[in-house]
Write a structure and sequence with these properties.
The structure holds 2 protein chains of 2 kinds. Chain A is mostly helical. The longest helix of chain A has 37 residues. Chain A starts with a helix and ends in a 5-residue tail after the last helix. By secondary structure, chain B is mainly α. Chain B is built from 10 helices and no strands. The chains are: A mainly alpha, B mainly alpha. At the A-B interface, helix 5, helix 6 and helix 13 of A face helix 2 and helix 3 of B.
Chain lengths: 336, 232
């Protein structure tokens, strides 16, 4: 058996098994995130939410998925057929692809690469293509406007996200995600870098096109924005991609600021709970905040969104980066 | 063996997509093929062991530059018939310019020779197994070449300022939002704590004061319980 596992075919089989072991829980998480969002929103608005399909509405995601599968895929007559169908696949693919480097526990990453954080940043910056291609290929003015908005928004907020990541990297001294989590064994980074934590969280809201930055799909002026022409499974792929991206961004926030799989206190009752459970709990906390924000804040106006990104977050994160560098250098805490 | 196969696969796709960039009829398709070319170049970097460069290539070129490029190309309203109109007329000039460039390249490459030590340096982006790619780059970039690095940064800054100066117009009569003034304004908004079910009429907040109703109040909840619906 050992001999087989070290052959190329064996390595391929192991990687496939690992991928399934990671992606199946992620997809289940996506399914139940849609339900959780509706339930939490309902509770915040004093409603009941979905409660008919299955006990407490627990089978609602599957009913929704079945409904999506049964519907007809419509390709608009003026659309660019290949790109139109490629865009949702790309969005979904990228949302899944990024999970390859996420360490769920110590040594539990499918690919524990040296430049893990750069890989994640690269994949998340590619997410804009799914949207911009969808908007262009639909041959519809609403879709195109939504795509343009989204492209400008995501590129803008990526800049300050980059600075936040660089600040964290300076405190770690490595681009490896496992090393980033291990560097937080004494204190989670959200405490010393609290303003950057807030900026990062708000930037992830903009990056995933969530409320209050959901202008690309602003239904009051753009009908549904970039996916207005999509139906059936192609729409479902966008939907799944958006929620998978939410979970991914929460995972990234957890790794960068909330100590990944580490327990809050490295002592007896907390260490009984295994790392992946801590990781999932922290992701769930971030996701709850995503939904909470959606229920609380009205949508930003577009010029205000741009102002926040370029005139507030960018100078502030740059300043904090220089400040962090100075403090690390002067106190001699700079990691070797 | 697998690495060689992967190299030829990525290199072939890279060249094919680079050709498609030039020959594609639709400029949006051209940009998309350019992005594919970037990806394959990143893959080649990965095979060579330059993982940092590969990721930076994807982040900077695919994630930012090509997005803006695509953005502009999609906004252009291109008339393909007019674009192809003068092809016959301009083809000889293009051929002459291309030929001269090709000759120059041949002349340069003809006198090219590799240094003796080049073979040892080939495909070794890391100075040692324990030093990662990014660290190795940083050690060179921020020590030996720090002035050049800063100079290139300054050049980029000047270019950016130039672009801003070229496009900045101060149009008279635009009303800008002053967020800090709005946030600092006080007195016009107040927060009142209202007992649940009592309504705001008794506190005197509602203006102008309504005349007293003649008929006695009907059910208590009917008058105040409304106004919460309508929002999904």
């Amino acid at each position: 058996m050992d001999g087989f596992l070290s052959t190329p075919v064996g390595i391929l089989a192991i990687t496939l098994a690992q991928t399934l072991a990671l992606l199946v829980p992620v997809l289940m998480g996506v399914a139940y995130l849609t339900l959780a969002e509706r339930k939490v929103l309902a509770a915040m608005q004093m409603r009941k939410g979905p409660n008919v399909v299955g006990p407490f509405g627990l089978l609602q995601p599957f009913a929704d998925a079945l409904k999506m599968l049964m519907k007809e895929t419509i390709v608009p007559s003026g659309a660019n057929r290949y790109l139109f169908l490629f865009a949702p696949m790309l969005t979904f693919m990228l949302a899944m692809l990024a999970w390859a480097v996420i360490p769920v526990n110590e040594g539990w990453a499918i690919a524990d690469i040296n430049v893990g954080i750069l890989y994640l940043f690269a994949i998340s910056s590619l997410g804009v293509y799914g949207i911009i291609i969808a908007g262009w290929a639909s041959n519809s003015k609403y879709a195109f406007l939504g795509a343009l908005r989204s492209a400008a928004q995501m590129v803008s907020y990526e800049v300050s996200m980059g600075f936040v990541i660089v600040t964290v990297l300076m405190c770690v001294g490595s681009l490896n995600l496992t090393a980033i989590v291990k560097a937080q064994e004494t204190v989670w980074f959200f405490l010393p870098l609290f303003p950057m934590f807030i900026i990062f969280f708000i930037s992830t809201l903009a990056e995933t096109n969530r409320a209050p930055f959901d202008l690309p799909e602003g239904e009051s002026e753009l009908v549904a924005g970039f996916f207005v022409e999509y139906s059936s499974m192609s729409f479902a792929l966008f939907f799944l991609g958006e929620y998978a991206n939410m979970i991914l961004m929460s995972a990234l926030t957890t790794i960068l600021f909330l100590g990944g799989w580490l327990p809050p206190i490295n002592a007896e009752p907390f260490t009984w709970i295994p790392g992946p459970i801590w990781f999932a709990l922290k992701i769930a906390l971030c996701l709850f905040t995503f939904i909470w924000v959606r229920a609380t804040f009205p949508r930003y106006r577009y010029d205000q969104l741009m102002r926040l990104g370029w005139k507030v977050f960018l100078p502030f994160s740059l300043l904090w980066l220089v400040l962090t560098a100075a403090v690390l250098k002067l106190t001699g805490w700079l990691p070797a | 063996m697998i690495a060689a196969l992967a190299f030829y696969l990525f290199a072939a796709i890279l060249i094919a997509s680079a050709v498609m960039v030039v020959t594609a009829r639709n400029p949006v398709h051209s940009v998309l093929f350019l992005i594919l070319a970037f990806f394959n170049a990143a893959a080649l970097f990965l095979i060579a062991g330059a993982e940092f460069l590969a990721m930076i290539l994807v982040i900077v070129y695919v994630g930012a530059v090509a997005v803006l490029f695509l953005f502009v190309v999609m906004m252009l309203d291109i008339d393909f018939a007019r674009l192809r109109e003068g092809f016959q007329r301009y083809a000889p000039f293009g051929a002459v310019v291309g030929g001269i460039l090709f000759l120059e390249l041949v002349l340069v490459l003809g006198s090219w020779s590799f240094a003796d030590t080049a073979d040892d340096l080939r495909l070794s982006p890391n100075p040692g197994a324990s030093v990662t790619n990014a660290e190795a780059l940083g050690r060179i970039l921020y020590t030996d070449y720090v002035y050049l690095f800063q100079a290139s940064g300054l050049i980029l800054l000047v270019a950016m300022i130039g672009a801003i100066v070229l496009t900045l117009r101060d149009r008279p009569g635009t009303r800008r939002q002053n967020v800090s003034a709005q946030v600092a304004r006080s007195g016009s908004i107040s927060l009142e704590k209202v007992p649940v079910g009592a309504g705001v009429k008794e506190l005197g907040i509602r203006r102008p004061p309504e005349p007293e109703p003649e008929k006695p109040k009907v059910a208590h909840g009917a008058g105040h319980g409304q106004g919460h619906g309508g929002h999904h």
